Amino acid sequence: MEWRFDKITRQTTKVDPSHLEFFRSEALDDPVSALVREDIQNRLDAKQKGNTNPVFVRYCLVNGNDSVDMTTASEYLAGLEPHLNSPGTLDELFSEKISLDVPMPFLVIEDFNTTGLKGDVLQTADSQNNAERNDFYWFIRNVGRTGKKAGDRGRWGLGKIVYPASSMIRSFFAYSVREKDHAHSLIGRSVFAIHEIEHCEYQSEGIGVQNV
C-alpha cells in the first residue's frame, strides 16, 4: 500500500480536521467508552437482514511481543512517514518526531453477521440511484456528510471520527468483506493537519491505497 495526500494549489480551500474536536470533548473523560459506543452503532446498522444471529463485535488490543514488526508494517505504511513527521502534523498531535521503525501496538475491531461496506468502491460522486446505499463511499470518501437515513442509530458524524482520533498516528485501515458477492476491499485513512513538506503544502487527510 502507498499513502497519498493531495497537494494544495492556489484554487484549494484549506480544511483542517476541526471535526476531531467533537471526539475530544465527547471522549475527554472516557475515550474507550466513546470509541466502543460509536463504533457499535455503525455495526448494528449494518446487520444482515434475515439473519437471526446477533451482530457480534470483537475488540482485540495487540501489544508487547505480538506488536506488528516494521518489516510487516512497511508494506502498509509506505509514504506515510514524511506526512506524519511534518511540523504541521506534529503540532496537531502535540508530539515530537514519531518513529515507525519500532514494533507497533494496534487495535483490531471485527464484526460478524453484518453486510460489510456495501457499494461500488470506485464511486466518487453522490448517486441519484437510491436502490442501494453505498456505505463504502460514504464512510471512506466523505467528511461531515452521511448517507444514513432517519431512524439509523448513528449518522456517521462522531461515529466516523472515533477511528483516527483513537490512533496515536491518527490512521486506520478499513478491511471489509461485502455480503452480496464476498468481494474484499482494503483502504487506509489518515487525519492529520494541513502540513508542508519541502515547501509544498498538503491537505490534512490522506488515504492508503493498494499498489496494483
Residue-averaged pLDDT: 85
Fraction in beta strands: 15-25%
CA radius of gyration is 18 Å
- How many structural units, i.e. domains? 1
Question: Based on DSSP secondary structure assignment, what is the total number of beta strands?
Answer: 7
Q: Helical residue percent?
A: 10-25%
Number of helices: 7
Order of helices and strands: EHHEHHHEHHEEEE
Distance between the termini: 9 Å
Envelope shape: globular
Largest sheet: 5 strands, antiparallel
Query: Which structural class matches the secondary elements?
Result: alpha+beta
Which regions have little confidence, pLDDT < 50, spanning 5+ residues?
Answer: none
List keywords for this structure.
five-stranded antiparallel β-sheet; 7 strands; alpha+beta; 7 helices
Structural notes for this entry:
This protein is α+β, with helices and mostly antiparallel strands and 212 residues long. The chain has one domain (2-209). It has seven helices and seven strands; from the N terminus they run βααβαααβααββββ. The strands form two sheets. Strands 1, 4, 5, 6 and 7 form a five-stranded antiparallel beta sheet that branches. It has a two-stranded antiparallel ribbon with strand order 2-3. Strand 6 (195-197) and strand 7 (200-209) form a beta hairpin. Helix 1 (20-26) crosses helix 7 (158-165) and helix 2 (31-45) packs across helix 7. The chain is globular, with a radius of gyration of 18 Å. 25% of the residues are buried.
